[in-house]
Amino acid sequence: MATAVPAERDAVAGAFPAPVREVRHPGALLHRTSVGVDLLAAGVGPALAAASTAAALTAAALAGTPYALVVCAGIAGGFLPDAPVGSLVVADEITVADLGAETADGFLPVTELGFGTVTHRPPGPLLRRAAAATGARTGTVLTVSTVTGTAARAAALRARHPRALAEAMEGFGVAEAAAAHGVPVLEVRAVSNPVGPRDRAAWRIPDALAALTEAFAKLAPVLENPGIPKIPEIPENPENPENPGALEVPENPEPPEIRPGEPGEPAELGKPGEPGEVEPA
């Protein structure tokens, strides 16, 4: 479970039996529950959340105990009227809303510039079970690096993302780290305030944190058996008992055959392709 700040982490922890113990890894301090669920206050914003989540995932993989699921959890702003304060949202799309470029004609997402991705989608069956267990609304949860503070920006975001229910700051970063490790991701948000003009008096953070605890108490049976395939284990290598997961590499592998190309062409590696084509690695 990856949250932004310790208050959110502790709210999620309240849904699981005590005690909780600390597990330290380089770049990630985990709180491990008695039922084996790891909680991480990953930091605010997509970059730090991605880095911290990646550190935790890497540590687990190196220990031979890779995670089967990553859940991004916390409070969020909700787009009225679809996600009022106090409601719960489970993302069916985790979309970064401000990664791209501003142009005279408006905003261009990074995908339209020819780079990367802007959306991650949780597994459908898991999403439906999570929503059914918690009574949550399902829709797009936006990830932003700058929290919306005006009605104009809220309207612009909703115009670009008509299915958006909430905005937060970590989901896409957590999802990017999970995707790099081949691990499914889920995002669960309790709405603490409306998206729009910044009005601290309207925030209901304690209520949202309480809703988060209640939601994860209901989610616990789903998370114990998420119904998604785990990462396949590396087959053991009996000839290398010191590192049974290592792949066997010949001591003196024969170098690949290298043949010179035609004049003016680069040398080819292995079987040559058609002129002007590059053989895939």
Explain how this protein is built.
By secondary structure, this protein is an alpha/beta fold. It has one domain: 3-Layer(aba) Sandwich (Rossmann fold). It is 27% helix and 26% strand. The protein contains six helices and 14 strands. A five-stranded mixed beta barrel has the order 5-11-10-6-12, surrounded by four helices. It has a four-stranded mixed beta sheet with strand order 1-4-3-2. The protein has a two-stranded antiparallel ribbon with strand order 7-8. 36% of the residues are buried. Residues 39-215 form the Nucleoside phosphorylase domain. Its EC number is 3.2.2.26. It is an enzyme of class 3 (hydrolase). It catalyses: futalosine + H2O = dehypoxanthine futalosine + hypoxanthine.
Concise overview:
With 281 residues, the chain is of the alpha/beta class.
Keywords:
6 helices; 27% helix; 281 residues; alpha/beta; disordered C terminus; Rossmann fold
Averaged pLDDT, please?
A: 86
Q: Helices and strands: which structural class?
A: alpha/beta
- The tally of strands reads 14
Number of helices: 6
CATH class: Alpha Beta
The end-to-end span amounts to 36 Å
CATH fourth-tier homologous superfamily: Nucleoside phosphorylase domain
Helix content: 25-40%
Biggest beta-sheet profile: 5 strands, mixed, barrel
